[in-house]
Design goal:
The chain is an alpha/beta fold and about 230 residues long. The chain has helices at about 15-25, 40-45, 55-65, 95-115, 130-140, 155-160, 195-210; strands spanning about 25-30, 50-55, 75, 120-125, 145-150, 170-175, 185-190, 220-225. It has a single domain (about 5-225), classed as Rossmann fold (3-Layer(aba) Sandwich). The radius of gyration is 17 Å and the shape is globular.
Length: about 230
């Protein structure tokens, strides 16, 4: 995977900082590794960290670039085959029924593993292959106390198939909005937090992000969504 990074590829960064700082999750699972997310999680030293990537070359590049503790895990989840080539841009609608069943089976196994983990709170970050994101969130989301996922702007909802119905009724939903990619975040109502507190805590990270990427401060903001 050869990615030319621009600022809109990393608009999730203030949200990651906020959730890691405010809730200090003991168990973190990252679906889709990257230079703009993986090192942020490593910097907060969660007790358990599992990252899962669909591109082996990209996974190796990230693992070679950052120190992983012995109790951290980096895994390759192969989905592409010669008969059914899949890459980061493949839409869910393009998957065969057989491939959909294969992917569902994979996440069922991951779900069992997550349910056995005792760390609290648990955080899931989703920024992996397009065709896997919605199914991963649907099958794993409620096993976690916090779910962060990238590209939830209106165009992204249709592109990635982000339709979750009433699955997250017991969660508060926040969006970090920008002029490009948005980042969604479900927070379990079991975790005590106030909207104003989150707004105040994220502001320094929004300011840093805007400064680093030459953006106007008023173009990035955190918004709680009505359910």
């Amino acid at each position: 995977m050869n990615i030319k990074t621009t600022w809109d590829w990393k608009t999730h960064q203030p949200m990651i900082h906020l959730m890691m700082l405010r809730f200090n999750p003991e168990f973190v699972m990252e679906l889709g590794v990257g230079f703009n997310s993986t090192p942020l999680f490593l910097d907060y030293y969660p007790k358990q960290f599992i990252c899962i990537e669909n591109d082996k070359e990209w996974l190796d590049k990230i693992v070679d670039s950052f120190p992983f503790c012995s109790n951290y895990s980096a895994r390759f989840h192969p989905v592409s085959t010669l008969n059914e080539p899949i890459d980061s841009g493949t839409k869910p609608s393009k998957l065969s029924d057989e491939k959909k069943r294969e992917i569902a089976t994979y996440y069922i196994d991951v779900k069992r593993e997550v349910q056995e983990e005792k760390g609290f709170p648990k955080l899931l970050f989703v920024d992996n292959y397009t065709c896997l994101r919605a199914v991963a969130i649907s099958m794993l989301g409620t096993c976690f106390d916090i779910v962060i996922y990238h590209d939830c702007q209106l165009e992204g909802i249709a592109w990635y198939g982000y339709y979750f119905g009433n699955q997250f009724d017991e969660y508060d939903f926040y969006i970090l909005k920008t002029s490009s990619s948005w980042t969604g975040c479900y927070i379990s109502k079991k975790l005590p937090c106030e909207e104003q507190e989150l707004r105040e805590m994220i502001q320094p990270y929004i300011q840093r992000f805007c400064t680093e990427n030459n953006l106007k401060l008023e173009t990035v903001w955190l918004e709680k969504q009505k359910r």
